[in-house]
Amino acid sequence: MKYQSVDEWKARGKELYGEDVENWKFVCPSCDKVSSGADFKVTGAELENMYNTCIGRHNNKETGCDWAAYGLFKTMGKGDVVITPDGKEVDVFAFAEIKLVSEMS
What does the domain layout of the chain look like in residue ranges? Predict the structure, then answer.
């Protein structure tokens, strides 16, 4: 998905997971590992890493891999793009979409 602004992207994160970014979840486009901000915090990584690096970069590949959205292959078409205030397009990992029980019935 292409988000037209950082605010639009943040609004989607809040819609899916609430205000606390530690609850936000992203999926690595390479290994499909889903990690949250809280998972990154446990490794000592900055929360800003959760949307552009796999958690494996921060936990010595205990789980996940070492993929980064800012690398040569970006998200391989499996991620999202956010347009920054200066018009730059930034590749980020996709949100790990969730289905609420009420939506499934």
Answer: 2-95
The Cα 83–Cα 99 span in angstroms is 26
Q: How far, in Å, CA of 44 to CA of 73, rounded?
A: 26
Per-residue pLDDT of the chain (105 residues; tens, 9 = 90+): 999 999 999 999 999 999 999 999 999 999 999 999 999 999 999 999 999 999 999 999 999 999 999 999 999 999 999 999 999 999 999 999 875 544 444
Q: Is 19 exposed, middle or buried (0-12, 13-18, 19+ CB in 10 A)?
A: exposed
Q: Is 74 left (phi over 0), alpha (psi -120 to 50) or beta?
A: left
Q: Please report which residue ranges of 1-105 form alpha helices under DSSP H.
A: 6-17, 37-43, 101-104
Strand partners, 27: 34, 94
- Provide the 10 A C-beta neighbour count for residue 105: 5
